Every structure is written in C-alpha cells, then in structure tokens.
C-alpha cells in the first residue's frame, strides 16, 4: 500500500472489529497491534501517495461502519485512529470475556461477528463513484476465520471485478476457501501474518 509509486490510488481499508480481534497471540492483543500499525500507515500512505484517497471502515456486529473518510485531513485521520487506540489500551480495566455484562458497548468496542458481504457492498458503492483513472483496491485485515453473510458474495465479487477492484487480505489468524477465492477472483494476494512485525510488513506492501 506504500510502494512509493506515484499512482493515483483509492484504497479502502476494511478492519475486522469482531470479538476475534481481542485474541492475545499478538502482544498485548491483535486490536492494539493492528491500530498501532494502521497509525503508522496513515503517515506512510500520505507521504508516498499525496494525491490518493484512503478511507477506513470497521467490520463489527455484521455491519460495516465508517471510521475514516477519504476526505478527512491527515490530522483528522490520525486523531480518529488514536481515539480507538486509547480505548483499546485502556480496556484492561475490564475482563474482556465478561465486559459485555458490566459495561455498555460503544462504537469503539469490537463486538459480534463480521459480514464480509456487507463490507464489500459498502466498498462497491464507493468505487462506483470513483473516477476510472484511480487504481482501486481493498485491503481487508482479518482476525476472524469465517464470515456471516446473508447473501451470495460471489455475485458481489463479479461486480467488483467489473469495477477493476483488487482485494488483498491480511489474516492475523488463518484462512479458508472463501478468502482464497476473494483474492483469486480480484487479482489480489492473501497474506498470513504470524506476528506484529509480519503484519506491518505485509500491510505496507499490500
């Protein structure tokens, strides 16, 4: 995502914000590691792609919600990531597995399952309005090993292929047949990150 090429890019970063992002195989957990790396990415993307567009969406509780709009200033983008990061770091005040019983879930909290379909559907609506001279790409950061979708995702993938959208997936856990098909059909790549260092390297080159 930060290869230094002066290509006009429209990148949508879809972040898995389900319960799975709280796993502690990354230190202190996947959520903090992911947000710290995305914060670095904001700077690198701006430096290497000054005329390009970057937006960030969260996949949580079967919905896709906007975290950062592509029109936000560089400072505003970092501020939003830092808000989520602050909440993630302070979450050790609660035991995560019982936290839903003792505190109100907010928009900053990972919850539920992901719906890959809903995330890609939102991205499709955005790319339909993107000028054709932009290179269009989705970077999907996954902590879940599955997705809960109510509709056929393969028809949606065909629409994205027709819009010339490439999808790369970085998985912090594992993969499955569907994820492999998503990258194969859109000409993207699937990366498996076994550590925070690997995750950072893969996010910066995806």
Question: Which labels suit this protein?
Answer:
206 residues; alpha/beta; six-stranded mixed sheet; 7 helices; 6 strands; 19% strand
SSE inventory with pairings:
Layout: E1 9-16, H1 30-48, E2 53-60, E3 63-68, H2 74-90, H3 96-102, H4 116-127, E4 135-142, H5 153-162, E5 165-171, H6 177-186, E6 190-192, H7 196-205
Parallel strand pairs: 1-2, 1-4, 4-5, 5-6
Antiparallel strand pairs: 2-3
Helix pairs in contact: 1-2, 1-7, 4-5
- Pick out the low-confidence regions: 93-102
SSE string, helix = H, strand = E?
Answer: EHEEHHHEHEHEH
Report the end-to-end length measured between terminal Cα atoms.
Answer: 5 Å
**DSSP helix count?**
7
What structural class is derived from the secondary structure elements? alpha/beta
Radius of gyration: 16 Å
Main beta-sheet strand count, sense and barrel state: 6 strands, mixed
How much beta, percentage-wise? 15-25%
The shape, in one word, is globular
Proportion of residues in helical segments: 40-55%
Task: Tell me the total number of β-strands.
Answer: 6
| Spatial sequence of strands, sheet with the most strands | 3-2-1-4-5-6
The chain-level mean pLDDT equals 91
């Amino acid at each position: 995502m930060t290869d230094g090429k002066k290509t006009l890019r429209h990148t949508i970063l879809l972040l898995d914000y389900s319960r799975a992002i709280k796993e502690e195989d990354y230190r202190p957990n996947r959520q903090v590691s992911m947000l710290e790396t995305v914060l670095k990415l904001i700077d690198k993307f701006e430096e290497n792609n000054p005329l390009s567009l970057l937006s960030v969406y969260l996949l949580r509780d079967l919905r896709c919600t906007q975290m950062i709009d592509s029109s936000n200033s560089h400072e505003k983008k970092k501020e939003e990531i830092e808000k989520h990061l602050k909440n993630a770091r302070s979450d050790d005040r609660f035991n995560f597995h019982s936290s839903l019983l003792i505190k109100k879930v907010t928009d900053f909290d990972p919850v539920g399952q992901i719906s890959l379909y809903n995330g890609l559907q939102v991205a499709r609506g955005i790319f339909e309005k993107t000028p054709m001279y932009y290179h269009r790409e989705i970077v999907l950061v996954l902590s879940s090993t599955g997705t809960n979708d109510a509709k056929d995702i393969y028809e949606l993938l065909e629409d994205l292929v027709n819009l010339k959208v490439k999808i790369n997936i970085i998985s912090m856990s594992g993969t499955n047949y569907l994820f492999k098909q998503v990258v194969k059909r859109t000409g993207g790549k699937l990366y498996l990150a076994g550590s925070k260092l690997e995750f950072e390297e893969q996010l910066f080159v995806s």
